[in-house]
Amino acid sequence: MYVPRPCKVFIRDWQTNVQFFRNSTVLPSATYWGQYEEITKYNADLNVAERMWAAWYAWMQNDVLATGIMSFVMHELVYFGRSLPWIFIDSLGFFKGYKIQSSKIPSLREQWDCAKFVLLSHFTVELPQIWLFHPMAQFCGLQTSIPFPSPWTMAYQIAIFFVMEDTWHYFSHRALHWGPLYKAIHKIHHQYSAPFGLAAEYASPIEVMILGFGTVGCPILWCAFTGDLHILTMYIWIVLRLFQAIDAHSGYEFPWSLHHFLPFWAGADHHDLHHEKFIGNYSSSFRWWDYLLDTEYTPDALKRRRENKAGAKKAQ
Ligand SMILES: [Zn+2]
Ligand SMILES: [Zn+2]
């Protein structure tokens, strides 16, 4: 028989949420949905997502495990889930006219080999790091409490993370193209001169750590300075960043691609050329660093450079 007992972990983790405890006498239930029902009974003001979130932590009774499992499963679902449409598009030949390097369509075999490598890296390199995430997040003051922050707070923080990560990515990626570092670390990622969605995380474990610091470290730095960041905001940011990385590697450029509406957005058009030419276009999300530091590699930038050179020669 299941005997309810007070949930210690739950109390510790949610203690900052005064309103929650004022109304609540939640005891652990044998099932996740039992826990959800308990929370619903005493917290009518919470929305469904907040109740599910609270029920998950209460049911797990182990915060490190709860955050670790949630982070790892989310990463796998989003990474492979977002890559799947690109696998179909490549193998069924949809949108052939929009393929950037149209003669280099990856075979299913190539994509499968890439997926195996990425999975191995996720389970051996990323999983242990994801397990450290909760203790690190708590140490840095990330909130796990409910209610969630407002959509506006999440939106402006995510916009800041995009800018911070892009800056980190530009300089560290550019450094990785320096001869010795390229040979030792970054060469693996450039195995595919015509990239595809799944190849976004096809990289050396050292590269995953260096570039991954931009994705995980920037929000943590933000939290260390402002003391204001919820883990959910971090999750939404990571999901959007995964979408950005996978789409940038997709190899397809559409008339409806985001950079046609936001000219400073990088997109596939920008990163595909980086893989094809091995030079320039070092940024991840935006075009401004490549533009400012003259490392842009696009037909327009090449034309501009030629004109500048010709102008300089005439002036001599
Ligand atoms: Zn590169
Ligand atoms: Zn790449």
UniProtKB/TrEMBL annotation:
GO terms for cellular component: membrane. The keyword Lyase does not apply. It comes from the Eukaryota. The keyword Transcription regulation does not apply. Its main location: membrane. It holds the Pfam family FA_hydroxylase. InterPro entries: Fatty_acid_hydroxylase, Sterol_Desaturase_Related. Keywords: Membrane, Transmembrane, Transmembrane helix. One of its GO terms (molecular function) is iron ion binding. It is found in: Membrane. Residues 159-295 form the Fatty acid hydroxylase domain. GO terms for biological process: lipid biosynthetic process. This is Fatty acid hydroxylase domain-containing protein. It comes from Penicillium argentinense.
